[in-house]
DNA sequence: TAGTGGTCTAGACCACTAT
DNA sequence: TAGTGGTCTAGACCACTAA
């Protein structure tokens, strides 16, 4: 057996009561103090359990108003955003990558404005193809702000992909991510070895270190890719 | 000003030290006890801050081994999974939907097995088209376990979509979600008013109440849809 | 204004694990 | 086995807000 102890047991019991409709959606549940008395523990322990459930979107809490079972469960799903190499290795496949192009260029206006840079600023433009078991897995198109690279690019890009080198070298404090779908352009189709127009899963990330933009990267995954999580 | 106080201030300071490379990736940081002494607070307060950062993937903690700055920041992104109606309304558009079909049917084997049901079990099959400002927004294909519906389907489906009625009626305790991309089938293209083969953003959810499967639903979003979050 | 959640404290014991 | 994080306690004060 491994019955949860402590705050996890309380979280489980609260979930059970919600599931069995002892506490219906929208209903007010007892105060932390009352629950602590019922479960014979400190209020902080109940607080920990209810706080986690509120974070997960199961409960809605407001001071003075008390705690309610969420009516519209805006469930929160937590996604892991792994480094590509580890993602491939985690599937039991062999990882490799190939740098297709590395240039200095003035980015499109949309890129510059997304990064909050003046139009006309020069960025590094890198395009990389990542492989799983020697099969194309991911096409990466990256714009990189040279100002955040104290020593320029690493000399040896054989060992480590740009992304991995970046996260070791330039810690970022803030970023945003979006997911969408797009039809493969002729170029992308050729790189990923799929039919032109195939539906690709697209991840776009922008990252910042404080006020300074670091990079904007677009990842195009071949057909069959799935991002998966639990709620 | 609104300088953070308490554990949030500690979290901010730790992030600052990581960002400024006072604590490099992979480095061991002081123990909770030491930090509590430095910041002049209780160890529990430091623990709260470091726990949040570990949850976010910024730190890696192990008993006895101490706390390290994550080398491969498997950053965690938190996504909100809203009810479709609220998603549309949240964009400032008018929401409506149309139930295209409602039948009892034996689902494909893949569906039955994903739900852990015996092959041959009969499920409800619902197909719904959701609109934003009278434009097709989302095509929904849902299999529903009738065993979890104590009173059958609601008589009036004009007010509330199936999904919204479900979450009010059958609280679920567990689910999983996956995101992918797919080319629009001829049917989907017709419903969503896009070209056949257009890249659609696909969300698939399976939900459970305890041991009982509730529903498996596939949502196909038209081109232009983006799921967005911050890290 | 009073009720409720949010957080902090000082101390304690325990669980895990590097050595 | 000893060091470190994980959690709990009993009590306190504060922040927010419904009534």
Q: Mind summarizing the main beta sheet of chain A?
A: 6 strands, antiparallel
Share of residues in strands of chain A: 35-45%
Q: Judging from the principal axes of the Cα atoms, what is the shape of chain A? A: elongated
Q: How many domain modules of chain A?
A: 2
Can you give a write-up of this model?
Two copies of one chain form a homodimer. With 231 residues, chain A is α+β, with helices and mostly antiparallel strands. The first copy, chain A, has two domains: 7-69, Winged helix-like DNA-binding domain superfamily/Winged helix DNA-binding domain (Arc Repressor Mutant, subunit A, Orthogonal Bundle); 84-221, Chorismate lyase, CATH 3.40.1410. In chain A, 27% of the residues lie in helices and 36% in strands. Chain A has helices at residues 7-19, 32-39, 43-55, 84-90, 109-114, 162-169, 186-192, and strands spanning 28-29, 59-62, 66-69, 75-81, 95-105, 123-132, 135-144, 174-183, 199-209, 212-221, 227-230. The first copy, chain A, has a six-stranded antiparallel beta sheet with strand order 5-6-7-10-9-8. In chain A, strands 1-3-2 form a three-stranded antiparallel beta sheet. In chain A, helix 1 packs across helix 3 and helix 2 crosses helix 3 (43-55). The radius of gyration of chain A is 24 Å and the shape is elongated. Chains A and B meet through helix 1, strand 4, helix 6, strand 8 and strand 9 of A and helix 1, strand 4, helix 6, strand 8 and strand 9 of B. Strand 11 (227-230) of chain A pairs antiparallel with strand 8 (174-183) of chain B. Chain A binds a DNA duplex (19 and 19 nucleotides) through residues 5-7, 31-33, 41-45, 47-48, 50-51, 61-67.
């Amino acid at each position: 057996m491994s019955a949860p102890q402590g705050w996890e047991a309380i979280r489980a019991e609260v979930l059970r009561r919600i599931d069995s409709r002892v506490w219906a959606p929208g209903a007010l549940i007892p105060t932390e103090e009352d629950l602590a008395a019922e479960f014979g523990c400190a209020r902080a322990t109940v607080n920990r359990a209810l706080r986690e459930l509120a974070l997960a979107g199961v409960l809605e809490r407001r001071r003075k108003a008390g705690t309610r079972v969420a009516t519209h469960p805006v469930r929160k799903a937590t996604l892991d955003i792994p480094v590509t190499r580890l993602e491939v290795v985690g599937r039991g496949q062999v990882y490799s990558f190939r740098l297709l192009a590395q240039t200095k260029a003035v980015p499109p206006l949309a890129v510059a404005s997304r990064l909050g840079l003046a139009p006309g600023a020069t960025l590094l433009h890198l395009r990389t193809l990542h492989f799983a078991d020697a099969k194309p897995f991911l096409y990466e198109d990256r714009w990189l702000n040279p100002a955040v690279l104290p020593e320029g690019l690493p000399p040896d890009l054989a060992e480590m992909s740009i992304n991995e080198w970046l996260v070791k070298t330039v810690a970022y404090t803030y970023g945003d991510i979006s997911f969408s779908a797009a039809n493969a352009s002729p170029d992308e189709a050729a790189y990923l070895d799929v039919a032109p127009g195939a539906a690709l899963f697209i991840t776009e990330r922008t990252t910042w270190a404080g006020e300074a933009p670091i990079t904007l990267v677009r990842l195009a995954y071949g057909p069959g890719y799935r991002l998966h999580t639990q709620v």
